[in-house]
Structures are given as C-alpha cells and as structure tokens.
Specification:
Length: about 525
C-alpha cells in the first residue's frame, strides 16, 4: 500500500477528478494502473486565504509494484495499515459475566467489545434509553422541569449525545483503536466522511441513531441492558468488589465491573469515596460559553464565507502572567448553547450542534484553569463541591434560566438589556443577568484577558456584543479514580474507565478507554 501526503486540490475543482490526476502524476503511472484510492485525511489549507485548498492524505493501490524510494519525495511512502484486532471470543461459561456501570461512550464501547467476545455483559444505566431521554431533555428545555435521572448528562449515550459529537482526539494508539471507533460509528449509521475528516463530527441528531443501533446489536449479541438502574452502593470484602446495590433495594453479585460513570455522577463519586476506593481531586477548568456570528468566524478562517465550505471551527489557547491557562473548549461551529443541568437548583451550560451545523452562531467554552486556589485538593471531592457552588450561583442569578450578558457589560459589571447586532442560539430559556458574579474576580480577569489575547489571533474576537452564557463547569472530571497498569483499582475487580474516572477527554478518547478496559478485563481470563 502506498501513502501520499500533502496533495493539494483547489476548492473550486471537482475533487475526485483532480485528486486522481494528481496521484497519477505523482506516481508517474497511467490512469488505468490506479486501482483504488482511500482518503485517510482531508483538511482545508487557508494559509493563503482567500485562495483555499483541500489537503489530502491517501492510501493508493496500483496495478504494478512501485519502489517508493525512486520518487525522492518524503510525502510518498509505503505503509502497512494495522487494523484493530478483536480479542478471541470466549466459550460458554469460560468467563464470569462482566458488569458495566454507565452507558456513555466508554461504557458503550466496552459493552460492544465484550458482547462481540461472547461474554454476555450486563450494562447498568441510571438514565433512560436515548429515545425517551430525548423527550425528557426537550421537555426540560421547553418548560424548565428537570428530571435529575434523565437529562443532558445522564442516559444512554452519555453527555456526548447532546453535544457537537466531535470525534477528534490527540490520543495516539498504534493498535488501531481510534480507527475502530470511527469505523464502528460508520457501521451503525454515521456519515463515512468521519473516516477522513481532519476534525470529524457526527452531530447530536445522528449520534442518537448510532447509539440506538449499537444498543440493539449489543442486545442481539447477548448483552443485557438495564435502564433506570442506578448503582447506589458497592459491597467490598477483603479488598475485592463482590456486589452492587441497585436503586437502593436490589443486590447484584459481581466479579468484574467496568466503572464508566461519566463526569457528572457526583453521588456515585461520594459513595465510592465512602467505601474507600482510592481517588484524587484533579485540576480542571471553568468559564463561560461565548457566541459569535458563524459568518464572522468563517471570514476570518477562510477569508470568505462560502456556502460550499464547511462552517469553520477554531481552537485558541493562551497562558497568562498570573499562571492561569485560558483556552477554548468544545467549540461548536453552527451550534447552540444548551442548558445541561443535572441537579436541582444548579445550572450548567454546554454546546451542541446538529449534523448540518446549521445554526447562525459559533459558540465555544472559554475556560480558565482552576485547582488548589479554588478548592482543597487533599479532599478528593473538593472539586465537586466547587462546581456545585458556582452552578448554584448561576442558577440563582438566572432564576433557573441560562444567564447571559454581553461582553462589554461583563467587563463593566452591569446587566445587559438587549442583544447587539446578533441574537443568541440556545436550547433552553435564557435571561439577561450578571454572569460576571458567578466566578471570582481573579477568574473573571483571566477570562477577560484571555478574550483580549484571542483577539490578536482572530481579529475582532473581543467583540463588545459577543454573548456570554454561564456557567461552563463540566469540562472534565474533577476526580481521578486510581488504577494500575492492569487498569484495575486497588479494589480488585473494579476497572475505573473513561472521562468520569479521569482517563479521557471526549467521545473518542472515552470510547478508546472503554476498549482498553474491556481488553484488560478479558486478559485476566486468558
């Protein structure tokens, strides 16, 4: 297999034809000798905007043997793609039936792999299946009536289901897990474009269907999924996990449990701490959702605003003199700011996009790093208490609605009375309020300085009528549950997994961690 990188094709050309011509020319072969082209990566080069190019990395099959060394071109090489190897299936009764707590990306992929290997896993999910969960979330956005067991954070698919569905990750994996996750999403209904996109995304509307299809396959393979089943206690004997209490009344004996509870299962973290499961408080980041017109972002990133181009994303980061880091997080092109609350009288926001990314606004969390200045890290649960404190403040100032403030008013410390030259795109009711009163003065100053620094990278980003919504507090888990090289806690039989346990940071990395935990669990029986 031959790999060719850095093939540039103008956005104004017919892509398939132009790409084929360039490959034939680079390899000095006839068109008839080119058997197959597989696009492995596709991105946009806007360095000479408004002159724009798609840039491709491709795998190529040709009819005759070629020696890549003769080309004297570092962008042409021979590759031997490594596919993910699914472990050998078990025979009936060869492995004790594993249990998975949580059915977000980590739990979903752990369950899928275990089901493929004939282990008949049991999945326990406190929320509802995605179709019913969607109804509860929509009702909450329309009425403000929150179901604390079925919401943006809890339920089949996890918090990522009501997000942009971004699938890019910085996690490197030589075993092909990343590719396997993307291929699995495609197998169950995602657009095949995610296999080649530089920044792949599914969108919440498509992700709902993919998750549902994966659930049905897990059931077909012998898995058991129990929705509306919350693990309320853990039985630990002689440092081994031996049982779970479900909904406070049902006992389930267990041998191996993958703990994929997500970053918002605060009651479960408290129970684990009470049962002396080793864990640590960790740094994370808090801040606000910031909206700009998507057309403004498009023009800056591309030099033009063309309908045929994908809506433009951005990624920003800066380090301040006070030691704080400020960065964009979960940027949603063509997205919506959503009320993502999961506890009564506490309010948190997130960003979400549908597959078409059709909203007129871009939004991103602009967040500031927090740690020992904000909470006592000697207490593993202190980060959770800090989150709750600022979420209570956000709920209070917005009276249960998403509190919003224009940037100029945030800086001046005054209430906004109307939007500027564009309006907000949200899911959930909003109200103008003093968002600047949620965080500490130091964090506010860091946020403002970060916005000013970002203006040097995206001219006009420090826009007076940029819309700020609060509070963004669930950027990552405030807890890390300790595990060893076998991915097991000091409590034998317990496998802390995914974003909630502190080992992932998004849909793809959580899914990959779910695969790793399932692999380690099965290795024990091999």
């Amino acid at each position: 297999m031959i790999q060719i990188q850095q093939i540039k094709v103008s956005i104004h050309e017919e892509q398939t034809t132009a790409l084929r011509k360039k490959i034939v020319k680079l390899l000095r072969i006839s068109d008839s000798d080119l058997i197959n082209i597989e696009i492995r990566k596709k991105s946009i080069d806007a360095r000479k905007k408004p002159e724009l190019y798609y840039v491709y990395t491709v795998y190529v099959e040709v009819a005759k043997k070629l020696s890549v060394s003769k080309f004297k071109n570092n962008n042409i090489s021979e590759v031997h793609p490594k596919s993910y190897r699914i472990p050998d299936a078990f025979s009936e009764g060869e492995i004790k039936r594993p249990v998975i707590i949580g059915f977000g990306p980590a739990g979903l992929f752990a369950a899928y792999l275990l089901a493929l290997c004939n282990t008949n896993p049991i999945i326990l999910e406190r929320g509802k299946q995605v179709e019913l969960r969607k109804e509860d979330v929509q009702k909450f956005w329309e009425t403000g009536v929150l179901d604390t067991k079925s919401n943006v954070q809890f339920g089949e698919g996890g918090a990522g289901t009501f997000s942009d569905g971004k699938l890019n990750t910085v996690v490197k994996d030589k075993f092909g897990r990343n590719r396997f996750v993307l291929e699995t999403f495609v197998k169950f209904g995602a657009n095949p474009d995610i296999l080649s996109s530089f920044k792949p995304h599914i969108g919440t509307d498509v992700l709902e269907k993919v998750v549902s299809n994966m659930r049905n396959e897990i059931l077909r393979l012998g898995g058991e999924i129990r929705f509306e089943t919350c693990v309320t206690d853990f039985e630990i004997k002689e440092n081994h996990l031996t049982g779970l209490w479900l909904n406070g009344e049902e006992y389930l004996a267990v041998s191996d449990v993958i703990l994929a509870i997500g970053h918002s299962a605060r009651d479960t973290f408290e129970t684990l701490h009470k049962r002396n499961v080793p864990m640590l408080a960790k740094d994370f980041a808090v801040g606000f959702r910031v909206e700009h017109p998507q057309s403004f972002i498009n023009v800056h990133q591309y030099g033009v605003d063309l309908e045929e181009l994908p809506v433009a994303p951005y990624k920003l980061a800066t380090n301040l003199e006070n030691g704080r880091g400020v960065y964009s997080f979960c940027m949603c092109p063509g997205g919506y700011v959503v009320n993502a609350s999961s506890e009564g009288h506490r309010l948190v926001v997130n960003g979400m996009s549908y597959s078409d990314r059709g909203s007129k606004n871009a939004n991103s969390a602009i967040v500031v790093s927090v740690g020992e200045k904000e909470f006592d890290k000697s207490n593993p649960l202190s980060g959770i208490e800090y989150q709750r404190k600022i979420e209570e403040k956000a709920y209070e100032i917005g009276q249960g609605k998403i509190p919003q403030q224009l940037l100029k008013d945030f800086v001046l410390g005054q209430n906004s009375t109307e939007y500027g030259h564009f309006t907000s795109e949200t899911r959930g009711e909003t109200v103008f309020a003093r968002v600047d009163q949620i965080l500490s003065p130091e964090l506010n100053e860091s946020f403002i300085q970060g916005m000013k620094n970002f203006d040097q990278k995206i001219s006009g980003y420090y826009m007076e009528d940029a819309i700020i919504s609060g509070v963004e507090s669930r950027t990552s888990s405030p807890v890390r549950i300790s595990r060893n090289d076998d991915f097991m806690s000091d409590i034998k039989g317990l496998y802390p997994c995914g974003e909630g346990a502190g080992y992932a940071g998004g849909i793809t990395s959580a899914a990959m961690d779910g695969l790793k935990c399932a692999e380690k669990l099965m290795e024990k029986y091999k």
